[in-house]
Amino acid sequence: MKRKFLTIFSLALAGVALASSFASSQTITLRLNHQTPATPVGAQIDQWFADEVAKRTNGRVVIKIFWAEALGKAKEMLPLMRQGAIDMAGLSPAYYPADLPFFTAPNSLPMAMDGTTQAQVIMHTLLEKVPAFAEEAKRNNVRPIFFHVLNPYYLLCKHPVRTLDDLKGKKMRTWGEDMPRLAQAAGAVPVTLFLPELYENLQRGVIDCAPFSVDFVVSYKLHEVAKYLTQVVTWQGPTHALWINLDKWNSLPPDAQRIMLDVAEEAKKKDLEKLAEAEKTARTAMAAAGVEFINFPESERQKWVAASPDFFTDWVAKMEKLGKGEAARQTVALWKELRAKYR
């Protein structure tokens, strides 16, 4: 009887081991809906990320990317991911200020960061040091893997803008809740548009100006329809993150999670290198296409800053009404400290 029991027990253990081995060899396919085409720097890094994850997991985790909102528009991605209709997303949080107010702030507050390295440090330090970010992500059943940053957003216009007065009455592309107020502070008219809409609306004169990085200008071919770049930084900071549905993340084997996080750290470094290369290449292409680069005087920039709202104070006040004032003040204090340190 004892021998029979041991035999059955041994067979059971062998079955568990076999099942475990079988499960570990199965391919896990993650469907990632992306807000941009495959051409911008961040998108290229995301493809590299997907390729590296597949390689380092020996094909056990495959990330299939659907570019240019193929599985749903940007404004639909968070609920789709939250519900598990898509596994992952390449998505900017500023599309969801009500759902992601903490993540939205670094992605939208104008004139609040000064460089790509600084922006990357600020964003990922906030994620690490301010618990409200993790709580907000969990509440939405998502997890950010890593954030991209962007080159500075200058003003690409159909007409030359050399002073603040030149913006009066001009129709300026904006997004979120704060960029419209920056436009209004200059006397411009804010027009909310999504990325795929920019070319046609610049071409038709629906907008006169669009804040954009030079590499994005070339990626979206906007220099074909607007020939003046005013070099005043309207916004700089983190852009889209690679996000994953939290339930899906928790279902991944621990070694796959570790690999994804390791690759993410390498992707952040590549992001900074590729951004610098992309800006240089884009400037050359724009100059060849006849774009005029206009230096905006510092005195004019200071006028714009003085005319603008105090975006930090206003954001804290808004978060105070949501019962999150203490976390918001912690966020701003750390943000300003890092901005001064990495200026």
Helix/strand layout:
Elements: H1 2-25, E1 28-34, H2 41-56, E2 61-66, H3 74-83, E3 88-91, H4 101-108, H5 116-129, H6 131-139, E4 142-149, E5 153-157, E6 171-174, H7 179-185, E7 189-192, H8 198-204, E8 209-212, H9 214-219, E9 228-235, E10 238-245, H10 246-251, H11 254-288, E11 292-295, H12 298-307, H13 311-321, H14 325-341
Structure keywords:
single chain; 343 residues; alpha/beta; D-Maltodextrin-Binding Protein, domain 2; five-stranded mixed β-sheet; four-stranded mixed β-sheet; 14 helices; 11 strands; 52% helix
Description of the structure:
This protein has a domain at 153-237 and 279-341: Bacterial extracellular solute-binding protein, family 7 (D-Maltodextrin-Binding Protein, domain 2), CATH 3.40.190.170. It is an alpha/beta fold. The relative contact order is 0.16. Strand 6 (171-174), helix 7 and strand 7 form a beta-alpha-beta unit. It has helices at residues 2-25, 41-56, 74-83, 101-108, 116-129, 131-139, 179-185, 198-204, 214-219, 246-251, 254-288, 298-307, 311-321, 325-341, and strands spanning 28-34, 61-66, 88-91, 142-149, 153-157, 171-174, 189-192, 209-212, 228-235, 238-245, 292-295. Helix 5 runs antiparallel to helix 14. 52% of the residues lie in helices and 18% in strands. Mean pLDDT is 93; it is low at 1-23. It has a five-stranded mixed sheet, sandwiched between helices. Strands 8-5-9-11 form a four-stranded mixed sheet.
